[in-house]
Amino acid sequence: MMWRNIAGFSKASIGRTGGSRRCLSTAIPGPCMVHKRGSDILHDPWFNKDTGFPLTERDRLGLRGLLPPRIISFEQQYDRFIESFRSLERNTLGQPDNVVSLAKWRILNRLHDRNETLYYRVLIDNIKDFAPIIYTPTVGLVCQNYSGLYRRPRGMYFSVDMIVITDGSRILGLGDLGVQGIGIPIGKLDMYVAAAGINPQRVLPIMLDVGTNNQKLLQNPLYLGLRQPRLEGDEYLEIIDEFMEAAFTRWPKAVVQFEDFQAKWAFGTLDRYRKKFCMFNDDVQGTAGVALAGLLGTCGLGVTEQAVARMAGISFAEATKNFYLIDKDGLVTTERSKLDPAVVPFAKNPAEIREGASIVEVVKTVRPHVLLGLSGVGGIFNEEVLKAMRESDSCKPAIFAMSNPTLNAECTAADAFKHAGENIVFGSGSPFENVQLENGNVGHVNQANNMYLFPGIGLGTLLSGARIVTDGMLLAAAECLASYMTDEESSKTVWTKCSIRHITAEVGAAVLRAAVSDDIVEGHGDVGPRDLSHMSKEETVDYITRNMWFPIYSPLVHEK
Ligand SMILES: NC(=O)c1ccc[n+]([C@@H]2O[C@H](COP(=O)([O-])OP(=O)(O)OC[C@H]3O[C@@H](n4cnc5c(N)ncnc54)[C@H](O)[C@@H]3O)[C@@H](O)[C@H]2O)c1
Ligand SMILES: O=C(O)C[C@H](O)C(=O)O
Ligand SMILES: [Mg+2]
After folding, report:
1. Ligand 2 pocket check: which of 174, 257, 282, 372 to mutate, most ligand atoms within 8 Å of Cβ?
2. pLDDT, tens only, 109-162
3. Which pLDDT tens digit goes with each residue over 249-291?
4. What number is the ipTM of this complex?
5. Is 537 a catalytic residue?
6. In 115-205, which residue ranges form alpha helices assigned H by DSSP?
7. Is 135 a catalytic residue?
8. Which atom of ligand 1 is nearest to the CA of 428?
9. Domains, the chain, with CATH or none
């Protein structure tokens, strides 16, 4: 673990460091804002500016001689990095996708390890190109190879706002990856920095190593985690309980995001903690919100409100009649033994459609409007299933292949448009290129990934000071996201067309305002609960936006 010495940003500590004898004096030097000197600064990615250190800082922080004399501006450094990245793209043309993706991840990761300000700036400005590398789908490949790729730990911090925790038991659709799953909290928190403007000094990725049941990893001599089977039952829960108590004792105002826990623990831990701690489960709640936004969005903006109103107007039992749940054993009916209580309301009458019916049978019988894939199994929306969707009762059927990473998607975008028809709405968890259709139009791909929701849920909750995340806050987030999908042909990609920070600010504001409605806001910093409740929608968006961190080099010494 790396301990970052960030002392020196408060007035008191500026006073303490002011007389540091290690500051080489020029005229009448002002105080230095950092305790570290020389190579310690260059090796700290938070402070490091590489060749961008101005002369005053080189003098006073003991950097002369450690850097080449020429000063390179931030913009030049930025352009140079982008040029190296593009040259890597050129040099790896024609090589296998996995090799290229990992090479791209390495060059970004090396920058992250060296200079965080530059790293986050290139990430924010090029989020469309870089999110698929630091996040889904390449992060899956990184997790699979993590023990071999590992170079340097990612930190320990003084103050924490956002924690993303995993136990590594269900990493994307790749199964149990043990400690190598740490790549997911790191990737999610990078998205928190890029999309929500959470200060990278205040995020904490956590991997709880409770063992792994992945035999290949247990036998791999390079595997970095505990070589023991996963803890189970009460022993497991005691560890999670201890973590939650410790985290909230240390950082009572933090928000904890549970990520990629296997279903068996995802639902149980959510029930156990959601009324007690400020936490949510991204895969359960964030994903439900994205799927809901997608469903509302496919109705078109005009009818979204009506759809919500109608949904609110019917009972849960009525609503479940419209859903057909298929798992690895086929369609779930009441004939199934040992039904999970959460599944019971969805179980169909076997007289209507047989127990265990395949996806294609269900599609042919039900002629659904929407096909939603969260199976983790690549390709199960095969040609036959997709062709059956042509008989959908909807004139604009929706196909969401939400499983990650790319190879685990239920179908590709190209296959969906080719087999199911050119009138479909397509969404996928991992990015796909838009598809050139035979009729000359473009088949638009929406990225139906919780990355459009969790940053706003986390940021809105944090800035509200709420101590729990309510259903109202989650529904507000989904409805807000749905409003970004319009029915116009040209705007089908609108989720990705708007800047992700813009979407996050709006989603965050919706979450915060829902927390106000639920009367649970406690305020954040100088902004009290009354201030929050008096803010208009626009003022709330503005408040959220003003609280976003942005990467620029800060001066490390006072000029005077
Ligand atoms: N796009 C997103 O934002 C997003 C969010 C969360 C999860 N996911 C993806 O969803 C996938 C599943 O995650 P999860 O947490 O729901 O996993 P899970 O293990 O809880 O659920 C998988 C389900 O798929 C069923 N299944 C397995 N094989 C099947 C088959 N051949 N046919 C039909 N059903 C089958 C299983 O019975 C199970 O019910 C993963 O790939 C994950 O990456 C995507
Ligand atoms: O990580 C992602 O890309 C989305 C989601 O949380 C998943 O588990 O697949
Ligand atoms: Mg996940």
Report:
1. 282
2. 999 999 999 999 999 999 999 999 999 999 999 999 998 888 887 767 778 999
3. 999 999 999 999 999 999 999 999 999 999 999 999 999 999 8
4. 0.99
5. no
6. 116-125, 127-134, 138-144, 146-149, 183-196
7. yes
8. 1
9. 74-277 (3.40.50.10380), 288-449 (3.40.50.720), 452-546 (no CATH)
